[in-house]
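User: Hi! Is it possible to get a structure for several chains at once, not just one? Here's what I have:
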Amino acid sequence: MKSKKSLVLILSIIISIFHMIPLYLLVSTAFKNDSDTSSKWRLPDYVFTGNFKNAWENAHLGSAFFNNIVITVTSVILVVIIGALASYPLARYQTKLNKFMYIVFISALIVPPLTILVPLYQFIVDLGGLNSYWAMIALNVTFNLPITIFLYTGFIGTIPRELDEAAMIDGASRIGLFFKIILPLLKPVTVTTIILSGVAVWNDYQFSVFFLQDSERLTITVALSQFFSQYNNNLGWVAAGSLLGMLPLTILYLFLQRYFIQGLSAGAVKD
Amino acid sequence: MQTELSHKSEISTIRDHNVINVKLRKKKVKSVFWINLLYLPALLLFCVFIFYPFFKGIVISFTNWDGYSQDYSWIGLENYKRMLADTNIGTVIKNTLIYGVGSTVLQNLIGLMYALLLNQSLKTRGLTRTIVYLPVIISPLIMGYIWYFIFQFNGGALNDIILLFRDKPVNLLSMPDVNVWIITFVNTFQFLGIAMTIYLAGLQSIPTDYYEAASLDGASSFSKFRHITLPMLAPSITINIVLNIIGGLKLFDVIVAMTNGGPGYASQSLSTMMYQTYFARQDAGYAASIGNLMFVLISIISLAALVYLRRREIAR
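Assistant: Yes, the chains can be modeled jointly so their relative placement is included. Here is the combined structure:
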């Protein structure tokens, strides 16, 4: 029994080490100076931060971070509002029409945006949405709505109807009812949605690479991919840039880990 | 008709037919249609950015449009005939299926193994879970670059090790077949944490007295796994398989970061092929038809998997 326990412990340590390898190599490369050609496996015995400065400037990460924040924050707020509002009638009034509408919304889950890229790109160009925040936000919101509606509809269904009814006696209007009674109860699923769509929008590459071409409007992923193809040989810079790009979410993840793991898996677990 | 329907269901849900409830019912029926306006914003976005482009895409696939000029002509099924004759499409579909099915098999096998391990009472459980889950929140593009550093020809971390055993480095990313599986591995490495977490939650929801009862009957640990664990995990298996298969079939970022589909078409998937056909070759009509093929492929495979797995769940 005891030997089985230590075997499990050793296995879990081996797994942990194996999964840390990519991050370890990234860090060791990012802190090495240009003239150091030692293996990536070897940590430098000095700390060189010049790569970070160069990556920040040459990849235009300053404006990329700003763009990422604008697009992510706006998209997430809109996804939560539009998704929660849409789910209320779908969960509460299961008429034939609304059952059909629910299927329509959910079926979009299996339409990857890439499959409709050609017409979508043309459409955004026609609307003058290239390099604009609004097009990025509209697309990110739209494609994050199916999972949001799925989660909210499921969750609202678990809130007892009596709560609505109790509020009706007080004469709360329907909309007022939604904001005053229902919305505060939705906190857990709202946290899930914020994390799920926040991570998706922050890390988005597929929309950004197509619709953002102006160097002032690039998001982190596109800025890094351009930087990467330009400075392919300067590994220290590229490693430092990658590290900077993943830093904000990694820090959030380490502090709010429980919510992240629950949230990102809830998209699938809630059935 | 609809109001009547909801009216009926309302009655069945309200147990006490007192005065307040009767009043309430009337109020509800009156307001029941305009409440649907709440999903209008969502519906509008869907129509504009999903349904309209979707149907437009079908139309474009019947033309020889180049993506920017005003004139194009109808060529009927020409693009689809071209696809059938395309010598690369076989490789590309095969790669797409490897990305989809390969990642699904790997993520589920390894994810389940990790979950079984972490389900033991273990001091390092939290730490291991944090580490295995971390890649889920990292951009797949950056994840692709990080693994590129490991597999790359010049100064790649893996080649540093290979050089200890032979005198020449190996260019793994330019080897057809090998690079497809490397990309599949990277995708697995990235999203393994989700499969693991779902299986872990599934394992923890199995009542322990099932195992106790089986132990009393003298069941071996393998037969406990086979007859208790696996059947009880059926819903988790369904979710994981469907989720991973969709994710793998539409894989894009990692391929772009690691090989950009190359060399030639060796690691190209339908998604990168469509992207390059459109942007690098200005062949919008053909790109649209590749997009449609991708849509059909993903919906058929994921729906078939979903229906099949759900049936199995119920049959048990």
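Residues 61-92 of chain A form the longest helix (32 residues). Chain A touches chain B through 94 residues (CB under 8 Å).

User: Great, thank you!
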